[in-house]
Automatic annotation (TrEMBL):
GO terms for biological process: D-xylose metabolic process; xylulose catabolic process. It catalyses: D-xylulose + ATP = D-xylulose 5-phosphate + ADP + H(+). Residues 1-242 form the Carbohydrate kinase FGGY N-terminal domain. The gene is xylB. The record marks 6 as: Important for activity. This is Xylulose kinase. It comes from the Bacteria.
């Protein structure tokens, strides 16, 4: 038996699976994020430890025999967070999370530093880890002077379990401290943000074994003696392991709070100016690239809050038959945007509102705007040489058949909808644990899910949506000028 953990921004999910990936049980525990100032987002790492105890206790109560047979576990974690420890291993301050934007000025300065983009393969975004430490140096100098180790969230969980400070390539790639092509910490990148190599955890691949769970931790958590902790990976990389997107031509589109279009890569081919992320994969010798839309289903959730309708009701009102592009245009930049604009102060807009515009027309415009933004991501990915033959649709928005038809037509790609079941980050983490403990080949373990249906682009509507996409793209500079 193996456990996959998904350390999310709002909670921890645990999945108990067999060596063949069959799900035996699952459990979840929530924890809060704190926002003490505008743009700040923090979390107490102790909450992650408490959540781990909660989910393992629940699994042990429901599946005692299976839990007694657990051989290993691995964790998928939200990226870019900064967990800082002193020389004794104590947490110095609450973890600064990926969606914290306080270090936007520091990010811009690092991004303008010669060599930083070339080595890291990426723009330094405000959410990345390195600018957070620069912010600490400037605003919390006493704490910064005591930083002995800087870690990512899921790596802190691994440290607590094993006593060994490690990170792995997919998560480290989002710090702006990693030479992503060489898969190694860069002294030059570290120095640019005032950090040193001795403050960095040891680097592993995602399927490498960190070590056994400490005996006292195993006893506390009810894990078998000798249970191994495998390094795990960054959430999107591990989600790619869960749906079998490992190499060229393979990928997924995620309609979650944010939107992600991910493409597996066999080599390192960055194009930082496109605002495409180029990161190491969670498996050895592979990379991936992704475009990110910061507000995907979050845009629909926002519309739901102000209209008093649930997102499901808003999308359901459109039916299942795809309609041509509507006159109302929505720019989904409610939280700024990453790909392709790299603009943290950009904000959204509705255009062409009419006295007859109702909430269904606005919901249609929101879905189209998010889809057009994802098409922007696809074009940026293509600019790096990435290839996508088709995509698997995941995330809450993928439950809408209308939205999947819209995406297929806007992206002009077949969209596969998986059968009901597990195929996300928790399963991907369990698959990494299986590979780490058994030595199995990732390509044999990380296979795609069974597909319930494939949605092809509607050839009668592809040209109309291409024209609407061009109008959408042309709106960005005009709206930006007004802000």
């Amino acid at each position: 038996m193996f456990i996959g953990l998904d350390l999310g921004t709002s909670g921890l999910r645990a999945l108990l699976v067999t060596e063949t990936g069959d799900v035996v049980g699952q459990a979840e525990a929530a924890y809060p994020a704190e926002h003490p100032h505008p743009g700040w987002s923090e979390q107490d790492p102790a909450d992650w430890i408490r959540a781990l105890g909660t989910v393992l206790t629940e699994l042990r109560a429901a599946h005692p025999e299976a839990m007694a047979a657990v051989k290993g576990l691995a964790t998928s974690g939200h990226m870019h967070g900064a967990v800082t420890l002193d020389a004794g291993g104590a947490v110095l301050r609450p973890a600064i999370l990926w969606n914290d934007t306080r270090s936007h000025a520091e990010a811009a300065e690092l991004d303008a530093t010669p060599g930083v983009r070339d080595l890291s393969g990426n723009i330094v975004f405000p959410g990345f880890t390195a600018p957070k430490l620069v912010w600490m140096a400037r605003n919390e100098p006493e704490l910064f002077a005591r930083v002995a180790t800087a870690m990512l969230p899921k790596d802190y969980l691994n440290l607590w379990l094993t006593g060994r400070a490690t990170s792995e390539m997919s998560d480290a790639a989002g710090t702006s401290w990693l030479d992503v092509g060489a898969r190694a910490w860069s002294d030059e990148l570290l120095a640019a943000s005032g950090m040193r190599a001795d403050q960095m955890p040891e680097l592993l691949e995602g399927s490498d074994v960190v070590g056994p769970v400490l005996p006292e931790r195993a006893a506390e958590l009810g894990l078998p003696e000798g249970c191994l902790v495998v390094a795990g990976g960054a959430d999107n990389a591990v989600a790619a392991c869960g749906i079998g997107a490992l190499g060229e031509g393979q990928g997924f589109v995620s309609l979650g709070t944010s939107g992600v279009l991910l493409a597996g890569r066999d080599g390192f081919a960055p194009r930082a100016e496109s605002a495409v992320h180029t990161f190491c994969h969670a498996i050895p010798g592979a990379w991936y690239q992704m475009g990110v839309v910061l507000a995907a289903t979050d845009s629909l959730n926002w519309l739901g809050r102000i209209t008093g309708e649930s997102p499901a009701a808003l999308t359901g009102a459109l039916g299942d038959d795809l309609q041509g592009p509507g006159p109302v245009r929505f720019l989904p930049y409610l939280s700024g945007e990453r790909t392709p604009h790299n603009d943290s102060v950009l904000r959204g807009a509705f255009l062409n509102l009419d006295i007859a515009t109702d909430r269904t027309a606005m919901a249609k415009a929101v879905m189209e705007g998010v889809s057009f933004a994802l098409r922007d991501c696809l074009d940026a990915l293509k600019g790096t040489g990435a290839r996508l033959d088709r995509v698997i649709a995941i995330g809450g928005g993928a439950r809408s058949l209308y939205w999947c038809k819209l995406l297929a037509t806007v992206l002009d790609l077949p969209v596969d909808r998986p059968e009901a079941g597990e195929f996300g980050a928790a399963l991907g983490a369990a698959r990494l644990a299986i590979c780490g403990v058994t030595g199995a080949d990732p390509s044999a373990v990380m296979t795609p899910p069974a597909i319930a249906e494939t949605i092809d682009p509607d050839p009668t509507l592809v040209p109309a949506f291409a024209e609407a996409q061009a109008r959408f793209r042309g709106s960005y500079p005009q709206v930006k000028e007004l802000q």
